[in-house]
UniProtKB/TrEMBL annotation:
<protein>
    <recommendedName>
        <fullName>DUF1776-domain-containing protein</fullName>
    </recommendedName>
</protein>
<keyword id="KW-1133">Transmembrane helix</keyword>
<dbReference type="InterPro" id="IPR036291">
    <property type="entry name" value="NAD(P)-bd_dom_sf"/>
</dbReference>
<feature type="transmembrane region" description="Helical">
    <location>
        <begin position="111"/>
        <end position="130"/>
    </location>
</feature>
<keyword id="KW-0812">Transmembrane</keyword>
<feature type="transmembrane region" description="Helical">
    <location>
        <begin position="71"/>
        <end position="91"/>
    </location>
</feature>
<dbReference type="Pfam" id="PF08643">
    <property type="entry name" value="DUF1776"/>
</dbReference>
<keyword id="KW-0472">Membrane</keyword>
<dbReference type="InterPro" id="IPR013952">
    <property type="entry name" value="DUF1776_fun"/>
</dbReference>
Length: 408
């Protein structure tokens, strides 16, 4: 074998080796491609990139932080709860101590006028207009009779004045209203050299005598129904109609105060009281809807068990046992009335007195059979005999429920 033949053989072996290596490499690459691409597709494609998770939201981040710092979170929540309760108690205590006084003119004279219409000699009404006079208001009390006018003047208060309004004589009532409007429109001088000022009609307060002696419907005659509706409902509506033009002109607040415990429960023997309350509530709702577009607010005060000192002292002398639960102090009602008079947007409904809100919820949601059982069905005659009309006027219809609690 020649040298050329050996060189040729060696070159052929090297070429075969290189060809085998290239073939094995391509087979390996082809195998990987077959694994990546589906069997039914003739084209090869690369696998999709892995999906990235979206960034966590603020809520998820907060939850993760809370789970990692549970001890710190519990301490923070406890601090916020105790701090909120403490702040609420502090604000309430401060509001109770805050002095509520009516505004005065530059010369120091009184300038805010309040008109009260209702049962003039009622302990609640008397306490209300006397308190408003002490707080710096010029208080006019609507007197339908000469006896009411004499009763108001007997209080001997300079800024507590009767406003004679005879509803049986429309012309005389209109004349009296014209005098009242002239009083508001003209200027007043407190003393020589003082700057003149005008009176501001702040509020018109209705305190109708919505109470009635407990009796069954069978014993109520048509004359008694007519007298009750005329005195308690129609007089209130007629008085409101007389003052409406002045109320609109001065944007005065309108307040209606009615007892709510007995009408909310609707016990037997209180048909007149429930009917009067329903009529006054419907009238107030319609009046509020009509006056709201004109910028006049109407507030309904639903009264519960309120401790009136004059009534409590009389009951103590008569030997009436104390109620099981303490009544709400009268000052809370006075403060609420003042806040409603001076607020820019007072609430539509105010619940003042123990049981006002609770019994309204009970009367609206609890079945009547359960309420009758709670009040002692079968002992209604005892309730009717024990409760006096004077006690109802003083406690604002809460003694009926107190009698039930005592008997239980």
């Amino acid at each position: 074998m020649t040298d050329a033949q050996q060189l040729f053989d060696y070159a052929r072996k090297q070429f075969d080796s290189i060809a085998d290596d290239v073939e094995r490499h391509f087979e390996q690459v082809a195998g990987q491609l077959r694994e990546w691409m589906p069997t039914d597709s003739p084209f090869a494609h690369t696998p999709p990139p892995p999906k990235r998770l979206p960034p966590p939201t603020a809520l998820q981040a907060a939850q993760r932080w809370i789970s990692r710092n549970r001890a710190l979170t519990a301490a923070t929540v406890a601090f916020l709860v105790t701090g909120s309760i403490g702040a609420f108690v502090f604000v309430k205590a401060r509001e109770g101590k805050r002095k509520r006084r009516a505004k005065r003119s530059v010369s120091g004279a009184r300038m805010d006028v309040v008109v009260i219409a209702g049962a003039v000699a009622s302990p609640l009404t008397s306490a209300l207009y006397l308190d408003l006079e002490r707080r710096g208001f010029v208080v006019y009390v609507v007197a339908n009779t000469r006896e009411d006018e004499h009763y108001v003047r007997s209080q001997s208060r300079v800024d507590l004045l009767p406003l004679r309004m005879d509803l049986t004589d429309p012309f005389a009532a209109q004349e009296q209203m014209a005098r009242f409007k002239n009083l508001l429109e003209r200027e007043h001088i407190a003393f020589d050299g003082a700057d003149p000022h005008r009176l501001n009609f702040t509020g018109f307060i209705l305190v109708p005598d919505a109470q009635a002696s407990p009796t069954t419907i069978d014993d109520i005659s048509s004359e008694e129904w007519a007298d009750a509706l005329n005195a308690k409902v129609l007089n209130t509506i007629a008085t409101t109609q007389l003052f409406l033009p002045t109320v609109r002109e001065h944007k005065a607040k309108v307040l209606l105060l009615t007892p709510s415990v007995t009408p909310a429960l609707k016990p037997p023997g209180h048909a007149i009281e429930s009917t009067v309350y329903g009529a006054l509530e419907g009238f107030t709702s319609t009046l509020s809807a009509e006056l709201k577009p004109q910028g006049v607010s109407v507030s309904h005060f639903k009264l519960g068990n309120i401790d009136i000192p004059a009534v409590t002292a009389r009951q103590r002398r008569e030997g009436v046992p104390k109620p099981l639960l303490k009544a709400t102090p009268l000052r809370q009602l006075h403060d609420s009335v003042f806040d409603a008079l001076v607020a820019k947007r007072p609430s539509r409904t105010w619940h003042v007195g123990r049981g006002s809100l609770a019994y309204e919820i009970i009367g609206g949601w609890v079945p009547s059979s359960v309420i009758g059982w709670m009040m002692g069905a079968g002992r209604k005659s005892k309730i009717v005999d024990d409760v006096k009309d004077e006690d109802l006027q003083g406690s604002q219809a809460s003694l009926t429920w107190e009698k039930v609690e005592q008997d239980a």
